[in-house]
């Protein structure tokens, strides 16, 4: 798969949004590849991992987030679902799952219902090794502050506002992948 062709398809303009998406996605992909290199004992599909990392945020253009150049109409919490639909339509269901499951440390049906998120009431938890690695790597980089690379401690602290269970999951991943 040539992931750049899909990015350029949905982001045809060489503008701030496409540049930000490419920078963030490359940061995430590079961290994923570093993890794969360090952990050759794990059965990681490295090519898929890089593709999925580069495409995990493909749905942001349809969301309303002006601070990161997104001028769509959907709530930002929906970007993973949007990306999942786009990639399923392109014939990439594995990549779609990564999109849908990278928000926070994954979203449970209970969280979606309790917080009133405009998402289908089901679990969107990273299950496969590649889904977990992309979700984990994504947490170190913010599109709002693209030059910032958070530490494990800073990332854990930033996740605390979403609940301690997510922090514990993240720290478990840190122990496994670092």
What does this 3D model show about the protein?
There is one protein chain. By secondary structure, the chain is mainly α. It is built from nine helices and two strands. A two-stranded antiparallel sheet has the order 1-2. α1 runs parallel beside α3, α2 runs antiparallel to α3 and α4 runs antiparallel to α5. The longest helix is centred in the N-terminal third of the chain and has 23 residues. The two termini are 28 Å apart.
Furnish the topology, listing elements before pairings.
Blueprint: H1 3-10, H2 16-38, H3 46-55, E1 64-65, E2 70-71, H4 79-89, H5 93-101, H6 109-115, H7 129-138, H8 152-159, H9 164-177
Helix pairs in contact: 1-3, 2-3, 2-7, 3-5, 3-7, 4-5, 8-9
Q: Estimate what percentage of residues fall within beta strands.
A: under 5%
Our count of helices gives: 9
Overall mean pLDDT stands at 97
The SSE order reads: HHHEEHHHHHH
| Biggest sheet character | 2 strands, antiparallel
Strand order of the largest sheet: 1-2
Helical percent range?
55-70%
What would you call the quaternary organization? Answer: single chain
